[in-house]
Amino acid sequence: MEETTQETKATYYEATGRRKNATARVRLYVVKDESIVIDGVTVAKGDMIVNGKPAETYFPGEIDKKVYQEPLRTTNTIGRFAVSVHAAGGGLSGQLGATLQGISRALEKTDKEKFRPILKKRGFMTRDSRKKQRIKAGFAHKSRARKQSPKR
Questions:
Q1: Is residue 28 part of a domain?
Q2: CATH of the domain at 49
Q3: What is the pLDDT along the chain (152 residues), one digit of tens a residue?
Q4: Are 14 and 23 in contact (CB under 8 A)?
């Protein structure tokens, strides 16, 4: 869905990604100049902001950096968009997976015929629906634990 914001007048594509209990709302901004102001933070073309912080500080580690850049690298769109992510719920791993899916879905909206088959083949469009099991009533403290039976 192509929209424009009031403060920056920039075009963006928006999508939502989910994993476990985490959700990530992703916006890919089409930047005409060198930088753009998103939520009071200046973002250059090709940069990514997650919850108001640079993605390198929010998701520390080299492996995490490769994960969230993979959809952009696969579609050869690194440096074309300024990316804004609002992640909530779950832990860092779930938020990273939700961000991955959100970026992939937003890229699909930019050019469906070109990007969808590539992203689908790599498995970026599939939601990882695994969640923690709920605690069953009358049992011990975990989902599959049982109470200890008396010996005599």
A1: yes
A2: 3.30.230.10
A3: 555 544 546 789 999 999 999 999 999 999 887 788 888 888 888 899 999 999 999 999 899 989 999 999 999 999 899 999 999 999 999 999 999 999 999 999 999 999 999 999 999 999 988 888 888 888 888 888 888 888 76
A4: no
Q: Residues 15, 97, 4, CA angle at the centre, nearest 5°?
A: 20
Q: How many whole angstroms separate alpha carbon 93 and alpha carbon 102? A: 14
Given a contact cutoff of 8 angstroms between Cβ atoms, the answer to whether 48 and 87 are in contact is: no
CA distances to 41, 77, 96 from 66, in Å: 23, 14, 11
